[in-house]
Design goal:
This protein is of the alpha/beta class. It is built from 27 helices and 31 strands. Helix 14 (320-326) links the parallel strand 12 (308-312) and strand 13. Helix 5 crosses helix 8 (126-138) and helix 9 runs parallel beside helix 15 (341-355). It is globular.
């Protein structure tokens, strides 16, 4: 592993290059920007000494947590000032940043001799940090950022128009075959490159779910100049394998000289195994974890040097793409972390449509980025990296023009992928009914009027969405627009899982573009799915207005006066608390202790297993991720509940007295917690101070310490564990083991047990922040108060 001195020395070998200037990094720190206001820095530690590695880890974590802060202008401003500070520490002055902004295009140039050397420079999210640091000088103008990897011993050959031999690698091994349909993407790529009529396969070839050896054999024989890989990276892919293949699913992994089989969970939970790369098919038909080096060797047999490799996989920009260059690939494109599937396909469609006939890769990349930035569903901070062994931007590029997408067919087309199963809480919170719903306009420059009808059928009831929409661009995403209003009778009818259907009709100028009915399993109102799609709606099962919660707080009034030794005391939440005053924070703890005492002594709770779900739990069919949840009133009537029932009950009590609750989800367990002050919760939400290397996780040349990205603002997954532990150690966040209510334990014992439950990183799954879900995201309690008992 690199020493700290070597990491710092590598910074001096990185240069930012514009068409007219070179800006070496690693010099004396420039004058820092104006100090932020006291309001900006309240509760935030002063800036620490930074290194390239620590900044690479910090910015990677901040960027992958963008769902928490992206909609808050104040938080965005803080991160922009932090980016300026980072660039200053790296040796760039405001004058130089202004010059880079004026150039509008910059290459990050760095050397490569081995995977272990300079990994932090390759992992660092240059696109986001440079764009943020120069935003104040650009007045809304875009800046194009690409990366040049100067590979030792592999001189870059000149960029030239390659022979148009294209290989599309469609990788859906094992359980992933049922998750994605990649044939449409193959047709999109083929059409964008103008290869629709290559019936003989001279310039176009598809290989489906190859093994590593099969991929290498095809490349050696066909020698493609452009390779497009569609599938999953190791991190996302193994999670999907575990979710769809069952808890006992296994994957193949090369450890030492031979491949060996290991549980999918072991790969996800063992940091030393969680390497970047892509999933390919194993020799036995299952899933094989493939490293960037193995993939690079397979794509460059016999000194073959592909012109371009495009990776439509998550987590492919930091390590996979540059290591392909080290094996001989001339250029590669990858995604920094998570990326919307429809947007990814649109980006590559725009890239390929603008690539031929000149094969000016940087110009095509810039045009594709311009096309992407015009899309309404592109969120801030999304990163795409173009790596090249040649200095592809050696001169000023032509001004970005509108993307030149090749028309296919006529009129309007519809791409749709409805969900197969819906938790009722998704409908309640106006969540999406579709994984993909997109209208395509091939009538440029016309703006067609399209009529869309979506109906959800449940017995004799139906709920409808109908709208007339104008497609004023190449594509119109509708996932966030299509929402179903629920009637009371339909809502009350779902007491058990029912087989429903979803009818979709799309019409344009009297012509039917799409008309079909899709089966849909609608789960009952109290059933929660703990998976990537539905688990985020758990805050809707926190029911502060349930009559039993109000009764619990009424009973707790007596206890709070005794515990606080004040006959006038009550539940005022944070009103008298000061984040800088420990004594006032103790008063918040005493309010929580009073609730604990009331539930402990008044309710006399016991533990019970979850109610039946009647789901198909055969091994390999569905994971055991579905659970019926009890309301507080149901818990009160039965005087018993599961761990998650009790966690939701306690969270509801906290929310009613305006103390901000969270729910921790562990492997097979759940417990609540609370923020000791609203300022602590706000600072955590902004991700202003995620911590040093110990907190954010140290990196090295192989591991991706924070794969993926936060999917919704209120739910933080495994990559946020160390940041949460920091909050707990600092006394800002308090976990409680509510199962101890059934064991007649004291409040202090429950606090210690909560901390102990969160001591093992491998057990941690996620945490959901209830107040963030409530506002501004309107994840509201379900209308089942006092019911379902």
């Amino acid at each position: 592993m690199e020493s700290i001195d070597a990491r710092q020395a590598y910074l001096k070998r990185i240069t930012l290059v514009t068409p007219t200037q070179r800006y070496p990094l690693g010099g004396e720190p420039a004058t820092p920007p104006p100090s932020p206001t006291a309001a900006d820095t309240a509760g935030v530690k002063p800036p620490r000494k930074v290194t390239l590695a620590s900044e690479a880890m910090r910015w990677t974590y901040v960027l992958r947590s963008r769902e928490r802060w992206k909609g808050d202008d104040r938080a965005v401003g803080k991160h922009e000032r932090s980016a300026i500070e980072t660039m200053h520490v790296f040796g760039l002055s405001d004058t130089q940043l202004k010059e880079i902004a004026a150039a509008g295009v910059v290459t990050v140039e760095m050397p490569f001799t081995s995977e272990a050397e300079g990994w932090a420079g390759r992992v660092f999210p240059w696109e986001f940090v440079i764009a943020s640091a120069t935003r104040r000088f650009r007045s809304g103008r875009r800046i194009s950022i690409v990366r040049h990897l100067d590979v030792s011993g592999r001189p870059a050959r000149a960029v030239r128009a390659p022979a148009p031999r294209v290989l599309f690698v469609q990788s859906q091994p094992g359980a992933l075959a049922s998750v994605y349909q990649l044939d449409p993407e193959a047709e999109l790529v083929r059409h964008a490159l103008g290869l629709d009529h290559d019936e003989a396969g001279l310039h176009w070839r598809v290989i489906k779910s190859p093994t590593l050896a099969e991929l290498q054999q095809v490349v050696a024989a066909y020698r493609p100049e452009l390779v497009h890989i569609a599938g999953c990276d190791n991190h996302q892919g193994v999670r999907l394998v575990r979710e769809h293949g069952g808890a006992r699913s296994r994957v193949w992994f090369r450890r030492g000289a031979d491949d060996e089989s290991l549980p999918a969970a072991e790969f996800l939970e063992t940091p030393d195994l969680a390497i970047d790369g892509v999933l390919l098919r194993a020799d036995d038909g299952n899933v094989r974890i493939t490293s960037p080096d193995e993939l690079g060797a397979a794509l460059t047999p016999g000194r073959h040097e592909p012109y371009l490799v495009c990776l439509n996989t998550w987590n492919s920009a930091a390590r996979t793409a540059p290591l392909l260059l080290a094996h001989g690939v001339l250029a590669a494109v990858g995604f920094q972390d998570a990326f919307d599937d429809a947007l990814a396909e649109y980006f590559y469609e725009a890239l390929y449509s603008n690539l031929r006939p000149a094969w000016n890769l940087p110009a095509a990349f810039e045009h594709a980025w311009s096309a992407l930035h015009s899309q309404p569903d592109l969120g801030p901070g999304t990163g795409i990296a173009l790596w090249a062994r040649a200095p592809l931007i050696a001169r000023a590029q032509p001004a970005a023009a509108a993307p030149r997408l090749r028309a296919k067919g006529e009129g309007v087309q519809c791409r749709i992928k409805p969900k197969k199963e819906l938790n009722y809480s998704v409908l309640h919170n106006h969540g999406p009914l579709f994984d993909e719903f997109e209208l395509r306009n091939h009538l440029h420059p016309d703006k067609p009027l399209v009529h869309v009808l979506v109906e959800l059928h449940c017995g004799s009831e139906q709920a409808r969405y109908a709208s007339a929409l104008v497609i004023d661009g190449p594509r119109l995403p509708l996932i966030e627009k299509i929402r179903i209003p629920l009637t009371a009778s339909l809502m009350r009818s779902v007491s058990e899982a029912v087989q429903s259907s979803l009818f979709v009709e799309v019409r344009h100028e009297g012509r039917t573009v799409l008309k079909d009915t899709y089966p849909l399993r609608l789960l009952p109102v109290d059933q929660w799915l703990d998976n990537a799609h539905s688990g985020q709606w758990l805050p809707s099962f926190v029911l502060p207005r349930d009559p039993a919660v109000e009764a619990a707080i009424t009973a707790a009034q007596r206890y709070v006066r005794v515990i606080r030794d004040d006959p006038t005391a009550g539940f005022e939440g944070y009103q008298t608390a000061d984040a800088a005053d420990p004594e006032s924070l103790d008063q918040v703890d005493l309010q929580v202790e009073a609730i604990w005492a009331a539930l402990l002594h008044e309710w006399q709770l016991g533990y019970i297993n979850p109610p039946p779900t009647y789901a198909d739990t055969r091994e390999g069919v569905l994971p055991l991720d579905s659970q019926r949840l009890r309301t507080p009133s149901a818990i009160r009537r039965a005087s018993m509940g599961t761990c998650i029932d009790l966690a939701l009950l306690f969270a509801a009590c906290l929310e009613l007295v305006d103390i901000y609750p969270v729910i921790f989800l562990l492997e097979g367990h759940a417990l609540p917690g609370y923020w000791r002050h609203h300022d602590f919760q706000a600072q955590y939400r902004d991700v202003v101070d995620p911590g040093d290397a110990e907190t954010v996780a140290e990196g090295d040349e192989r591991r991706n310490t924070t794969p993926g990205a936060q999917s919704v603002p209120w739910k933080v997954g495994k990559s946020g564990y160390r940041e949460l532990r920091k909050q707990i150690r600092a006394g800002r966040l308090v976990p409680l083991e509510t199962v101890r209510l059934t064991e007649h334990a004291s409040f202090r014992e429950a606090m210690r047990a909560g901390i102990e439950a969160l001591s093992d990183e491998s057990d941690f799954d996620s945490v959901l922040d209830i107040v963030t879900a409530r506002r501004p995201h309107n994840v509201t309690p379900l209308p089942i108060l006092g019911e379902l008992g």
